[in-house]
Every structure is written in C-alpha cells, then in structure tokens.
Write a structure and sequence with these properties.
heterodimer; A: mainly alpha; two-stranded antiparallel sheet; 2 strands; globular; B: six-stranded mixed sheet
Amino acid sequence: MSKPASGGNAIVNLGVLVLVVAVLFLLPMMTTPYYVRVATGVAMWAGLALSWNVICGYAGYISFGHVAFFGIGAYTTAILMQPQHDWNFWATLPVAAVIAGAVAALVGWPALRLKGAYFAIATWALAEAVRELATILDFTGGSRGLTTPIHLDDNFFYYTMLATAAIAFAVCYLLLERSRFGFRVKAVRDNEVAARAQGINTTLVKIAAFVLSAMIPAVLGGINAYWITFINPESVLNTIITDQLVVMVLVGGLGHAWGPALGATVLYVFDEQLRVSYGETTAYIIIVGALVMAVVLFLPDGLVSVGRRVRRMRLVRQLLNRARDDVVPRRTDSETEEARR
Amino acid sequence: MTVLAVDDLFRSFGGIRAVDGVSLDIEQAEIVGIIGPNGSGKSTLFNLLTGALKADAGTISLFGRNITRLAPYRIARAGLGRTFQIPALFVNMTVRENLWTAAVQFDWDNARADADAVLERLELTHVAEDLASSLSGGQQRLLEMGRVLMQKPKVALLDEVAAGVHPRLRQIMLDAIRTMRDAGTTFLVIEHDMELAQDICDRIIVMDAGKIVAQGSFEEISHDPHVMEAYLGVSAE
C-alpha cells in the first residue's frame, strides 16, 4: 500500500519531473558541447547531493565522509577497466555499487550506534582512511592515479549520468516518500526511542538507509572515472567533494525530495558561470560563499521553501490589510467626498 | 489468564535502587494503575518492561514468553505498546503520518482507514495535516494515545497519558481505553490523578522507593497505612 507523504502534491511532482526530463533529454540537440558538459556535471552533483540527503535529510545522520563512496566507485571502475582486467564499463558499475554498499554496511554497523558529531567524525575518518589506502596501494596506482580508456562522446556521458541520477531519484522517491521504509527512516530521524516502541528495528533501518546513500555516489563515481579518463586520490577522494554536496543540499532544502537537485543545479551552474567570467581564480568563491550565507540566513529551509515563503508573506499581508480595515473602517463614498472638500 | 508477569525485578543507577525486587501479575483485560510519589520507580519499571532499560536481575514474561533481554522493537512486536511521560512524537511528520507510522510494523494494510477512524474518535481530524510539533500539550498526549490505538497492542503501558488534557477530551480518551479493554487489551497505567485512577482502574499498585508497598482496589489502598505514610505523607495514626 502506498501512502502520500511529505513530498508534496504527487501529480505536480510527476508533472515537473516529466517536464524536466524532457528538456534534459533534448538538451544535446539544442546547445553546444560545453553546456552538455555543464549539464553532465549538474546531473552528477544532483545525484551526489540526493545520496547525502538520504542519510542526513531523511535518516538524520550527518555524514562527512560521503566522498569515500564516490572514490570507491571511481576506483572500482578504473581498476576493472585496466588492460589486465579489461571489464566492460557497464559491468563495473554494479560492482562499484555493491562494494560501496558493503563498506557502508560494515562501517555503519558500529558507527550508526554513535550519535550526532560522533557519527560525522567516524565517516570523516572513513574518507581519510580510504584516501590513504588509495595513495599507498599499488593496484590503485598510488598518488600517480589511474587512467581509463578514452571515450570521446560527451552525449554518452551526459545521458549515462542523467539516467543514473534520474533512476537514483526515482528509487529514493519511491522508497522514502511512498513506502513503509520511508516512514521507518523518518521515524528514526525524528525520535529513535519512539520508533523502537513502534516495533521498528532502528539499527537495521539506519544501515539500510546508509547503504542506499552509499551505492548512488559509487555508481556516479564510476561514470565520472570513465568520463574524466584519469583519477587520483586528489581528484575523487578530496574532502571538498563532501563539503560541496553538503552545501548543495542545505541550499536546495534538506530532507526534501527536490531540494538536493535544485541546490546542485543552482550552485553548479552559478559556479561554472563565475568561473567563465572570472577565470580560474579563487575570487568566485567569495561570491558563492555570500550566496550560501544569504540562503542560510534568509531561507533556512532552502530554495524549495521560496514558494511557501512567498505564499506566507502574501497571507500575512492580507491579514494585516484585514486587521487595518477592522480598526479603521473604510470611508464611504460620501465621507471621502466630504473629506476632500 | 496472566498476560504480563514480573518476577523479582531489580534495577540500580549507581547506588540508588530505582526498582527493588518488584513482582507483579497482570491479568488479561485488566486495567491496573501504578501510583507513587516522584522517584518511586514507576517510569523506570515501564522502561524495564518495554526494554528501553535492561534489568540487573529478575524476569519479565509476556504471555508466558520471557522478554527480559529482548530489544525494545521485539517487545513492541510481541504486543506491548506504550506512551511516554514526555510525549515522544515524530515531530517533523504530520499528525496523520504519526498515526500511519504507528501501524508500519503492524496492520499496515488498514492504516489509512484506521488512522481516519482514530482521528475522528480523538477529535484530531482538524489538525490531521498539521505537524505534530505544532500541537498543544494535551493534543500531543491524544496523539500518543492515537498511536497506541493504531498499534493495537495486547498490553498497553500508559505513562500519565491524560495529564494536561482538556476534561472533555480526557473523557474521550478514557472511553477509548475502556473500549480497548472490552476488546481484550490489558492496561498498565501510571497516574497521579487519583480521581482518574479511581474512575478507570480495576486495581491499584502503590510504589515507593522502588518497591511495591501496597496493592488492591482503590478503597483498599486508600486506607492502607503504608500508602498514607509513603504516598500521602501522613501517618496512619
């Protein structure tokens, strides 16, 4: 049995989804390869932000080590596509997802018993450990990194990244907004003691949510490794990746179905445009930082709350007008005429 | 038929014995009140029964099954539901979603219809789409009661469930408890309101300093010298 949940009106959501998918599908036919590459990046970051939203927005656990799963996926694909293994690209993606899911389950079993900052620190430590391993192990290429076969087709990566992000969104939406599992996850987020009293196995639910949130970046990492043709610890296991996707989720709307995709789109496109305008300097970071601060200060629920805020302000204005009318009754036409005289 | 049996239960916090050798048997469809001064061990006993705390010694059986060491979610699935002294709601969910969540491990197929019925019965329909965090204190207790109704437990532990609830809504709550009891549900109720305890409970257990000091009908315990001294703070003489 499916239930309507906090994701808003289902028909509106579906309509927006169809429209967005149609526009994105036709994009390569309407624009230049540069914008196709930007759109590929948007799709990747939207998927990454979505995955972080699963564990933080829905389950209530802050992960500062999500880049570990992105890196595990990238390295899995890159290693399996080396000439000595020569795997097909598509076959590497499920392997990447399974390995990342297994790591999340192994780490989550003890770490998800920790609360708040302790879990965040544990995940941060995981990311650091994975980065160190990738730097010192031979089969990961160490700090020199690995190359993947060159595939010069921007549209291929665009559609692959887009399809992956769309499938990830659909799976998360169905699981978290339309199924029993979603209610269990949100119950754990809101009150773990009460959730247990409702018969919910909270440990299992948290691990399942963490595994789901780990598998998505692993697949995206695998596609990314093939796309950029070269990976090393600095490029796919850099903690700045986690920082960026956290900001994207917060700017878009934490715990909301659409929020992460919206935040990723706005910030990535904005970031790209500033880079084009000001070049490869760090000056643009100031503008991005100011934007993030403005959103956090004035829209604490993220960009998804803009519509609701506008409606609320309209309602407040209406109520104020009504209250003013009650206090100062409107003049009749004759009274107005008399006052004018 | 004994549905809940507690035998020589102990639990200490440091040097304080919060529950000190408690034994009790609760029969099916009985409403048993637990009263006692603050710090007498009532809520600790509830936490031990529901698995939120582990006992230092003693056994707890539900329908003859030893549940002493079971995880709280397994105890809930075995048929023991509860409310909390401070309402423990899913604050970012609506009132309706709180009720659905209560059925997520139980009668999920009928959750929608059951929730509608519970909302109407507890007069919460007008706030069904409001966030649980926006409810008044009394409404929050009603919602906790609603979750118990959704869960349909065999034994329900209610911790001061009617505190702060409007008298009319309290009557609705009490009617719901009686209806559930008539359908076979057993209740263990912590209550400070003596009038309510007298009104609804078949039997009263009095606790003081972690021990059961008296039990019986309301009339019996109200004349018990231990109760007068320990609970009311006056000597029997």
